[in-house]
Amino acid sequence: MHPYSDLPDQNFWRRFVPPRPWRDLPLAQAKFRISRSDAISTAGSCFAQHISRYLREAGIATFRAEAAHPLAHELGGEVASYERFPARYGNIYTARQCLELFRQAFGMIPVIHDYAEEKGRYYDLMRPNAIPDGFGSVAEAQADRQYHLACVRHMFMQSNVFILTLGLTECWYHAEQGHTYPVCPGTARGKYDPQLHQFRNMTHAEVTADLEQLITSLQTVNPALNLILTVSPVPLVATYTNQNVLVASSYSKSVLRAAAGEVEMRYNHVAYFPSYEIISHAGSYGQYLESDLREVTERGVQHVMTHFLETYLMPVAATAAAASAPAPAPAPAAFVHAPVLDTKAECEEIFNDLGHPQGGAPAAAT
Question: Which residues form the GSCFA domain (predicted)?
Answer without folding.
Answer: 40-308
